[in-house]
Amino acid sequence: MSTTLLVYLHGFRSSPRSSKAVMTGEGIKAISSLENPFEWYCPQLLASPKESMAMVEDHINRTGADRIVVVGSSLGGFYANYLAEKYDCKAVVLNPAVRAARELAPHVGMMTAYDSDEPFDFRPEYIDELKSLQVEKISNPSRYFLIAAKGDELLDWQEMVGFYPGAKHLVLEGSDHGIADYADHLPQVLKFISA
Q1: CB contact at 8 A, 123 and 105
Q2: Residues 28-54: pLDDT tens digits?
Q3: Which residues contact 179 (CB under 8 A, 6 or more apart)?
Q4: Were 50 and a residue from 28, 129, 188, 190 both cysteine, which residue would form a disulfide, CB within 3.0 to 4.6 Å?
Q5: Number of domains in the chain
């Protein structure tokens, strides 16, 4: 019997309560069985990229799972690249911010979380932390599944496609940054995770 640890990483200023996180968690529960158990791990990430990755790596290193799969949305997709390369594991990336330091540089400052009034302090040093986590080139395209929406209003889908040459790609006509039609594509995500 082999256990799979499924790590879900939400986006910038988001939370484990995001709709994609909740839907993915429910999907994982549905495919988890006694013969093929899944452990679900979807932490509230911190403003500091370095502290976020230290927390996630600590959990990964303590788990008894035989295999790891990472699913990441937006900034979580950037983190998923880093973890997939570090642990040689599969990653599903949903509208990933492949160059997070560049994308988030304009967002330094004090703001709030998306789904609460919690203060969210994104400091200038966090841009350097992102730079230190940057993956320049994926080493094994077969481990990656990219879902990119042409209608993403925040990130460039063509840059995403270019970053994952040879990987499994699902390019959505239209849709948006949050992938409003994610439920339609979840079966493909679960199939890739299970394979």
Answers
A1: no
A2: 999 999 999 999 999 999 999 999 999
A3: 20, 73, 94, 95, 147, 149, 172, 185
A4: 129
A5: 1
At residue 105, the pLDDT reads 94
Phi, psi of 179 (to 5 degrees): 50, 70
More confident residue, 179 or 118: 179
Q: Would you state the pLDDT for residue 113?
A: 80
For residue 154, the domain's CATH number is 3.40.50.1820
- pLDDT per residue as tens digits for the range 143-182: 999 999 999 999 999 999 999 999 999 999 999 999 999 9
Structure tokens at 65: 């799972």
Host domain of residue 136 = 4-194
